[in-house]
Design goal:
3-stranded antiparallel β-sheet; about 60% helix; 3 strands
Amino acid sequence: MPSASPEIPDKLYFRIGEVARLAGVNPSVLRYWENEFSIIDPKKSGSNHRLYRRKDVEHILEIKHLLYEKRYTIQGARQHFAASRGKAEKSKVKVKVEAKPVQPAQAALFAAPNPPLISEIRKELQSILDSLK
């Protein structure tokens, strides 16, 4: 992103007018970009106003930079985001689990399951899985 990007206020949600002022574009441009870029996904309020999250605003500023300063086409900007998403997915940690045969001594552990113990183990494994995400 450009080094002279505007300071984004520390808020949870932004209305379309605020985002348009921050990005320096018309609200109609933002609505058009919503149709062209799936990464921009404002929520609708009860009164049907668009509410953009901080991440949406960051994406909008990056889209503006790509289109207006780097002179990307809409398709080129879409490909840029798809490529950066692909890199992020590849960098995620993947755990490979290998199946090993059960030894006779271990077979007794699996013969008569202890439901409270299994439940506790399941919770621990879920917490480990959650921490890896």
